[in-house]
Amino acid sequence: MHETPIVETHQLSKCYGGTHRVNQINLNVREGEIYGFLGPNGAGKTTTLKMLLGLIKPSEGSIAMFGKSLNSHRPAILKQTGSLIESPSYYGHLTGLENMKVMQRLRNVPDKNIHEALKIVRLENAKNKKAEQYSLGMKQRLGIAMALLAFPKLLILDEPTNGLDPSGIGEIRELIKSLPERYGMTILLSSHLLSEIEQIATSVGIISDGKLLYQGSMASLQARNKRAISIRTGDNSRAERLLLTQGYRPVQSGGRLKFDHLQDADVASANKLLVDHNIAVTRIEEHKQSLEDIFLELTGKERSL
Predict the structure, then answer these.
(1) Paired residues of 207 in beta bridges
(2) What digits encode the pLDDT tens for the residues 35-71?
(3) What's the distance, CA 37 to chain centroid?
(4) Within 13 Å of residue 93, how many CA atoms lie on the same side as its CB?
(5) % helix / strand / coil in the chain, to the nearest 5?
(6) How crowded is the C-beta side of 164, counted as CA atoms within 13 Å?
(7) pLDDT tens digit string along 185-236?
(8) What is the residue-wise DSSP string for 179-222?
(9) What's the predicted TM-score (pTM) here?
């Protein structure tokens, strides 16, 4: 991977009627990544992606793509970019192949690109069927095929699995995961589905109420999982006093003594200490935050993605 980001924004903002839909975000998407742009519906994901494509003018801030300013080099940048925003656009009375040929004229690419793109999204056997007769999943795949037509360096996908059944979601997921290695593409995709981002992305940005709350590798986010130990005893108050004398820092909660960052050896020692002092230990449990817990903690949103 190169050091220069494929996408870099600085204090990027968009206001509507005095309200920030996007509020001073600094995106950093590096070459070869699958960057998951994660947030609840209405968080500002689509607005941000539209600004990256020049479809919406920022209220403030700057955008650089491929190391160049979007303001000064938009045609050259868009030539290297494919996108599917909100929902696929197509002519229902035309076949899949005819829709691809319309896009071919706009992008000025050879015929072989059409056949390769249709093959990638597994629509080659349905290319002569009218688009209005396609299932929702097929329409989504046609939209991705159009975005892939020029085999761009950067592919921007807005909620690419939205409305699909589990089988369709799996197909799109595997397709997206294959693109960086097969074609050297960098992928920037938005989603409100944490489970999807977790399975597909190598890096993640979490946005809520227009603010970027976290940005980094998926591995770094997963490493934030907090490991806690809880111990239930026959006499929690006495157990707490004893453990405090030995340097432990238990907190009584829900009929248990809870400890943060307790290593296995410390758990064993605490257990032995309690038993040696005739305090019955009835349960020892380990608790880990899920990624959803981390998301809710970051955003303060008491709702599931």
Answers:
(1) 212
(2) 999 988 888 999 999 999 999 999 999 999 999 999 9
(3) 4
(4) 0
(5) 40, 30, 30
(6) 22
(7) 999 999 888 888 888 999 999 998 899 999 998 888 877 766 789 999 999 9
(8) HHHHH--EEEEEES-HHHHHHH-SEEEEEETTEEEEEEEHHHHH
(9) 0.77
